[in-house]
Amino acid sequence: MIGLGTILNIVTIVVGAACGVWFGARMPERTTRTVTDALGLTTLVIGGLNIASLQDPDYVTAVGGGVTLLIVLGALLVGGITGSLARIEDRLEGVGGWLQARLSRGDDGNAARHRFIEGFVDASLIFCIGPLAVLGSLSDGLGRGIDQLALKSTMDGFAALAFAASLGWGVAASAISVGAWQGLLTVAAVLLGSLMPPEVIASLTATGGVLLLGIGLRLLQIRQVPVGDMLPALVVAPILTWLVVLLRA
Hints:
Oligomer: single chain
Largest sheet: none
Number of strands: 0
């Protein structure tokens, strides 16, 4: 069944977040802060591992060894400017605020609202940016199985548990973002009928790795990097890669 992987992912995020909220209500604030710091450090590690795709053999061969980083930099600059002008970060926070207002039972105050929005935005970015979200959805849409999304679902479930312990129900709401993004990619794979070439996947993975570093800095409260505004870079990176490959042909 095409789309089953994304459905499984949504379920694991909601279940994990629900368990996290239950556990979080029974843990002191110092403990929940430690959990968030641990997730921030882990996100930095995952981002670094993804950035290693800059040295992917297919990527280097296709565009040249000195160009891989330039493509990622160009994607981040063009994507960041585009996203900033479109105010993507503000729109994500607006969606989070709208969901909080609809799902809450009453006026829980600004602190609860901010916590919900933070959980929704940060979890949405983390669950949607990783390469497994892209590759798994494409594989699912092509009817090649849901192995990658099953792995991602397991990881996201545990991550949602840990996040929700400190950030609350906003993490569960991020399942909406995951469903929309991965569903779109799955439909695109059905229509396109083929996976992206390896060099494009590598550029996408490396760009996503940089964005994950930004999320890690947010979680560690070092700097509120506007990762949401940089999301168009995930579209720009493949385009720049294709253009370079065409110019070198």
